[in-house]
Amino acid sequence: WYTMRGQAWEAKKRNEEAAAEYRKAIEAEPARYRGHSLLAGLLLEEGEIEEAYDHYRRALANNPSYLTAREGVAETLFLQGRFAEAIEQWGELLRFRPDDPAIHRDLASAHYLLGHVDEALKHWRFALELMPEMPGVRKNVELVSAQRAQRERLLADYTRTTKAEPDNYGARRKLAWLLATANDVAFRDPSE
């Protein structure tokens, strides 16, 4: 009853009243996942990421197969910068929904931010296969592919220059910088 009233308030954009009803639902039945999940979604919308995470975790603890809560846990982990943990949750979601382009898109973003560029490209490309017009994904693939190609060209150019002109300090310095930053987020190979 409380959750239905909360949803009615939420539909009217009266989030304070909705949150109060969801909290009543949780108080009445703390072991039920629905109140936690609905409150978490509202809190996330309000920017209360840590509290949203707590309620999504409780919903998931009460019903481990509730995919909406698992999605919420992944999203809140991602927003907290806990990318590896978010990847675990999205990986779990893929077991149930392997053809969900949004999961592949989000998983790719987390991989990219951890420097797993190959893995990110794989998931972004698969998301595009599933939904060719998915906003932003094609641009991500193009940007990362262009960065990689530019980096490879620069490495080849500076390597060639330093071999041909061993005393060329500028080329040696730029090559050293490229090699030293090989593990930067945008270019790190996940197999390293």
How would you describe this protein?
The chain is mostly helical and 192 residues long. 76% of the residues lie in helices and 0% in strands. The protein starts with a helix and ends in a 12-residue tail after the last helix. It has helices at residues 2-11, 15-28, 33-45, 49-62, 67-79, 83-96, 101-113, 117-130, 137-164, 169-180. Helix 3 runs parallel beside helix 5 and helix 4 (49-62) runs antiparallel to helix 5. The protein has 10 helices and no strands.
Structure summarized in a few sentences:
By secondary structure, the protein is mostly helical.
Structural class: mainly alpha
Shape: elongated
Helical content band: over 70%
Tally the helices. Answer: 10
SSE sequence, one letter per element:
HHHHHHHHHH
How confident overall, as mean pLDDT?
85
Strand content: under 5%
Annotation, overall tally of beta strands:
0
Quote the distance from N terminus to C terminus: 53 Å
Uncertain residue ranges: 185-192
Largest sheet: none
Features:
192 residues, mainly alpha, 76% helix, disordered C terminus
Sequence-ordered SSE layout with sheet pairings:
Blueprint (H helix, E strand, L loop, with lengths): L1 H10 L3 H14 L4 H13 L3 H14 L4 H13 L3 H14 L4 H13 L3 H14 L6 H28 L4 H12 L12
